[in-house]
Amino acid sequence: MPFLSVFVYNLYSKIISAISGLGYNIYIFTEVILDLPNLPKRAKELLNQIETSAFGGFPVAMIVAIFTGMVLAFQSGIELARFKQEANIGLLVSASMCREMGPVMTGYILAGLIGSTMAAELGTMKVSEEIDALETMSIDPIKFLVLPRVVAMALVGPLLTIYTNVIGVLGGAFVATFILNVNLNIYFRSALDALTLKDIYSGLTKALVFGITIAVVGCTQGLRAEGGAAGVGKTTMRAVVIAFIAVLVFDYLLTWLFYSAV
Q: What share of residues in the chain are helix, strand, coil (percent, to 5)?
């Protein structure tokens, strides 16, 4: 019985903490939306955050995208070759990258690189009482710290996704041409013919939502940090885990939203 009581209490505490965290995320997001008119005052910090997020993600995105495109082309090429349909490799690679793989892989990259950085930065400021100092000086931490980070990620998410899509399709072209002996012109014609306007804007919308979500989660976890250096480490880990799960959940919901009528 004591063990059961402890288990129930711990479960109850976890549920309450999760609900509290969700509520705080919604609060932060709402405050960011309301503070958007003040964005011009934070233009310099916004540019710094865009530079950090974009250039921090470009090298990793290139490596991940090119090998993702190569794997997609190789795997689909093996199966299509059984039906003499190798000419459709470009179709599968471009559709997969623009609909799913591009935005999702970009979301994971941003969550691991940038979301964790935001959580660590704000977490360190929180435990060292820098956030409290800002509030003492009547400076709103959300307007001062969170707003430029969220807007930067909202811009970088779609930008990095476009880059990932292009690199992925080029990686697929390399495999299709030099390993599977598909004519390069046929590959790119198939890739372009397969894409629809919905494939493009649905993928970019996902990237926009993922970028905002990752930034809000990272900032929220940072602002809730406590317990010194160990607390900052746990905060950073939670930010990445929550962001990964949120990307998957929103990916399904947005896919259902865009393609449920098909």
A: 90, 0, 10
